[in-house]
């Protein structure tokens, strides 16, 4: 009996050892695969770095931005040293975004993004991880640093290319070499703007003589929208913020050259006249809409005592965003209307009149129909999970030209002095179909990742919204939405 019990003890010990070995070998891998299935890696919080982690998760959900970084960093591949490549912000950012979008194989469920802070310090940005920072400010730090990196690249490929040295702006066809042989082609990556780059137009019209001043253009990387005063019983929508952004304003006591000229023509010769000052109407419009649209909702306000306050009200937004009525269109005379009809849909922008936005009224809609595609004014329940929607979504039976799909939302919890940033983002597509857009959403808080529903995303108090422009393709009963290549 003692021998039998001893044998069973040996067998139990061996079985326990085998079980422990199998757990060591297979247990963590199985658990890791279970956590990683359908999810993305999280990011380690290095001490108040949730602002950086949330922004990186949002940028990694924009395929056009990652594609641009790949093209932008193509010239660095010729450098042999890996350390020399890592000194570039574009290379470091590309590696992080590819890993967060599951385009690079990584065994870690939590990544360390301290390399981004190190390379930003090389770009003379001192970002402390021990102080509260803002995700929107970091976004502008990244875009401006990428532009500086592009501008620092030499535009002359050879010191003996005297012709190029004498001309600061030169195209590839103009490049010639006074030495034997031809120069290598100049890469056009350094001249391309990043996908978040857009242009604003500033339009000034005199109320007295209706003379329009030359349109001014300003660049932007994100649209920073203030939240208008809330009206009781009326939900605040993204359309309200956009209309408030481009709403016209009157500027008094402005010198009008045209009024002064008219006044001079009506006076006798030799009489001096003063500059005529009138009231101008100024309006902002979007002259160039980017491929990737970042919208920043300004939640900072000030009390009567001068203390900063945060606005917590919910701003309704949709999964799809139509920007046609906010696009600037050059004013045309009646004689040029025929030319307009012959232009492509890209150049014809509905919802504008002489370069000024016209808010669609209910009278313009067919009877018995409602504008289902108001930005943030309705639910996206009529949009199908497969990425298609019926033509009835457009009451006027005209497809929008500037249509955007929501890719990520950055939310700030807390007040103006302290808080925490989290991100809602789309799950990356499968490697078998990398050009597709999934309908699965994720909630990410630093190293914590879980699945979320679209309803939860649209119910969040957005701080940053990341949209990507899509094209409408197809005929018949439905149109398919595909990302613009």
UniProtKB/TrEMBL annotation:
Organism in which the protein naturally occurs: Podargus strigoides (Tawny frogmouth)
Organismal lineage: Eukaryota, Metazoa, Chordata, Craniata, Vertebrata
Catalysed transformations (reactions): Thiol-dependent hydrolysis of ester, thioester, amide, peptide and isopeptide bonds formed by the C-terminal Gly of ubiquitin (a 76-residue protein attached to proteins as an intracellular targeting signal)
Segments of this protein annotated with the region Disordered: 336-370
Keywords assigned: Hydrolase, Membrane, Protease, Thiol protease, Transmembrane, Transmembrane helix, Ubl conjugation pathway
Protein name, per record: Ubiquitin carboxyl-terminal hydrolase
EC number per UniProt: 3.4.19.12
GN (gene name): Usp30
GO cellular component term of the entry, any: nucleus
Gene Ontology MF annotations: cysteine-type deubiquitinase activity
All copies of domain USP, residue ranges: 41-470
Annotated transmembrane regions: 6-26
């Amino acid at each position: 009996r003692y021998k039998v019990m001893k044998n069973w003890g040996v067998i139990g010990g061996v079985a326990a050892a085998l079980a422990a070995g199998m757990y060591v070998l297979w247990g963590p891998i199985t658990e890791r695969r279970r956590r990683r299935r359908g999810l993305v890696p999280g990011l380690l919080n290095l001490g108040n770095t949730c602002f950086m982690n949330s922004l990186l998760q949002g940028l990694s959900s924009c395929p056009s931005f990652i594609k641009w970084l790949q093209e932008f960093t193509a010239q660095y591949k010729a450098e042999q040293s890996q350390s020399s490549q890592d000194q570039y912000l574009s290379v470091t950012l590309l590696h992080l975004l590819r890993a967060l979008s599951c385009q690079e194989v990584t065994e870690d469920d939590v990544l360390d993004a301290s390399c981004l802070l190190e390379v930003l310090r090389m770009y003379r940005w001192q970002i402390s991880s021990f102080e509260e920072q803002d995700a929107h400010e970091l976004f502008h730090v990244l875009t401006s640093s990428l532009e500086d990196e592009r501008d620092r690249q030499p535009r002359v490929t050879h010191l003996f290319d005297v012709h190029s040295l004498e001309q600061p702006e030169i195209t590839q066809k103009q490049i010639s070499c006074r030495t034997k042989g031809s120069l290598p082609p100049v890469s056009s990556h350094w001249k391309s703007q990043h996908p978040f780059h857009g242009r604003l137009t500033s339009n000034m019209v005199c109320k007295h003589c209706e003379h329009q001043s030359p349109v001014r253009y300003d660049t932007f990387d994100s649209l920073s929208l203030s939240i208008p005063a809330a009206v009781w019983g009326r939900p605040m929508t993204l359309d309200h913020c956009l209309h408030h952004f481009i709403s016209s304003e009157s500027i008094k006591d402005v010198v009008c050259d045209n009024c002064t000229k008219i006044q001079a023509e009506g006076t006798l010769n030799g009489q001096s006249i003063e500059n005529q000052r009138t009231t101008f109407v100024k309006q902002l419009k979007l002259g160039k809409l980017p491929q990737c649209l970042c919208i920043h909702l300004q939640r900072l306000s000030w009390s009567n005592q001068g203390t900063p306050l945060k606005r917590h009200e919910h701003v309704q937004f949709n999964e799809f965003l139509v920007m046609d009525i906010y696009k600037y269109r050059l004013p045309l005379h009646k004689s040029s209307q025929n030319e307009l009809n012959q232009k492509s849909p890209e150049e014809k922008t509905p919802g504008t009149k002489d370069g000024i936005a016209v808010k669609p009224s209910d009278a313009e809609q067919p009877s018995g129909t409602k504008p289902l595609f108001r930005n943030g004014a309705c639910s996206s329940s009529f949009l199908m999970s497969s990425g298609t929607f019926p033509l009835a979504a457009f009451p006027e039976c005209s497809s929008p030209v500037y249509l955007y799909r929501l890719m990520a939302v950055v939310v700030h919890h807390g007040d103006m002095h302290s808080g925490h940033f989290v991100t809602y983002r789309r799950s990356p597509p499968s490697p078998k179909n990398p050009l597709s857009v999934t309908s699965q959403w994720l909630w990410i808080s630093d190293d914590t990742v879980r699945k979320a529903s679209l309803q939860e995303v649209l119910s969040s108090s957005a701080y940053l919204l990341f949209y990507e422009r899509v094209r409408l393709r197809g005929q018949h009963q439905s149109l398919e939405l595909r990302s613009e290549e």
